[in-house]
Amino acid sequence: MNDNPWIIVSNRFSGRGRAGARSSNLNEKIKARGHFATEVSGNTLESCLVELRANLVSNSPRGILIVGGDGLVNAVVSEVHKAAGNTPILVVAEGTGNDFSRTCGTFGLSDDGLVDLICRKDPHRLDLLLINERPCVEIAATGFDANVNRRANAMRRVRGKLKYVVAMFQELIRLKAISYRLILDGNEMTFNALFVAVANSASYGGGMRISPNSAPDDGLIEVAVLEPVSRFELLRVFPRVFSGTHIDHARFKVYRGVEGRLEAETSVYADGEDFGTLPIDFRVLPNAIRVWKSS
After folding, report:
1. For residues 105 and 294, is the Cβ–Cβ distance under 8 A?
2. Range of the domain at 90
3. Distance of alpha carbon 174 from its chain centroid, rounded?
4. Does 73 have pLDDT greater than 80?
């Protein structure tokens, strides 16, 4: 049996404070299985990551339980990647969108189910998307989608995936096409689009399956493009994004490759976090991270 300790990283402010309580509950359940766990939860994200770095160096952890949302997942995965480590992670959904937990099948699992998963099953290897060499586990959104993400992040009264829907309606007023230049595996194309999403997995924004055929273990990147449509048409098609059937629309295009560059005068959000502005260089790292999946 592997006797190395677990690390439980939580954002104590996630889920209206539920993340801290859930972290403690998971710790107790791990101890009941005869294992040892260390909880990492700082007053700020940076203090939390400083403590995590120290544990990665000194403890050779058996695995990391991330109790929070996609932003915390991104931060922890980035630390593991920078440390050139092989430490597997488990995502415990306590954020706003929780899209990577959906990808991993851990969304909605009970604490007993999560602990059973890490104690009984081996982690899977998944790809990692690099945006300007910065890790991304899900999707990098640009254009209209990035603007929606920025507005949603600023909301305090509206919570959960509803905030992305509200933000989308608010951003419709400013809707306009953007001129893009895409180089994918050496092939260059230019086009106008409302948004371009560089995808390693299927969803963002709390279950919006913008690139439903994307798989995080196929060694490929999907570049999803919505060509210009009217506000009315965007509203008509929008509900289909939750089922992924929007991909049948004539103005929706998908390109696949392993590396590329995207240029435009717009911003980019990846895993719900501000990644700055374009241009970006992107590439896939096959089998780069280990993650516990329930399916």
Report:
1. yes
2. 6-121
3. 26
4. yes
pLDDT, position 1? 47
pLDDT, tens digit (0-9, with 9 covering 90-100), for 114-153: 999 999 999 999 999 999 999 999 999 999 989 888 888 7
Q: pLDDT tens digit string along 175-200?
A: 999 999 999 999 999 999 999 999 99
For residues 270 and 140, membership in a common domain is answered with yes
DSSP 233-275: HHHHHGGGGGTTGGGGSTTEEEEEESEEEEE-SSEEEETTEEE
**Quick one: 75 and 150 in the same domain?**
no
Residues 155 and 74 in one domain: no
Tell me what the mean pLDDT of segment 57-83 comes to. 90
Q: Does residue 127 belong to any structural domain of this protein?
A: no
- What is the number of structural domains in the chain? 2
Clarify whether residues 82 and 208 are in a common domain. Answer: no
Model pTM score: 0.90
**CATH no. for residue 84?**
3.40.50.10330
Tokens describing residue 227: 């060509």
**Contact in structure between 206 and 180 (CB atoms under 8 Å):** no
